[in-house]
Amino acid sequence: MLKHRGFPGRMPGSDFQFTIRRANPKGVTPLIRRERRSDRKSVDRRADTAFMQALWDCFGSEPFERGNLDAGRLSWLFGREVVAAQDPFDPADYEALLVINEKIARASYPDVFEDET
Predict the structure, then answer these.
(1) Which of 13, 69, 84, 92 has its CA 20 to 30 A from that of 33?
(2) Are strands 82-84 and 97-100 parallel, antiparallel or unpaired?
């Protein structure tokens, strides 16, 4: 499992985890598409924004390996802002390649991209 050095481990000032320390001995947690409802707590939405910011700062529009990125946090973006970069795609593989869907990410999280023109 690739460890993304320099990637924040969690959202500053919170317990929202962005990375994992070690591989799950019971097997890889698969990525799933989690539905975001309009009644989600504002702190959950801030965590999504902070995670998207970290992904964009670290990887930009280039494909990246899932590695030690937290499956739970990644699943909130998976299938929309973050998509598979390879076919076939195994959602339960630490070496799976992902990429940010920039068009959708810019629409969903405009604050992440507002400094760029």
Answers:
(1) 13
(2) antiparallel
Residues in contact with 102: Cβ distance below 8 Å, sequence separation at least 6, in sequence order = 61
pTM above 0.85, yes or no: yes
Residue type, 35: E
**Both tokens of residue 83?**
């998509």
Helices (H) and strands (E) in the chain, counts: 4, 3
pLDDT tens digits along 42-87: 999 999 999 999 999 999 999 999 999 999 999 999 999 999 999 9
Pull the structure tokens for residue 74.
């990644």
Q: In the numeric block, which tokens belong to residue 116?
A: 């760029």
Q: What is the pLDDT of residue 28?
A: 92
The helix (H) or strand (E) run that includes residue 61 is none
Give yes or no for residue 117 having a pLDDT over 70. Answer: no
Separation CA 3–CA 80 (nearest Å) = 24
Of 30, 3, 28, the closest CA to residue 18 belongs to 3
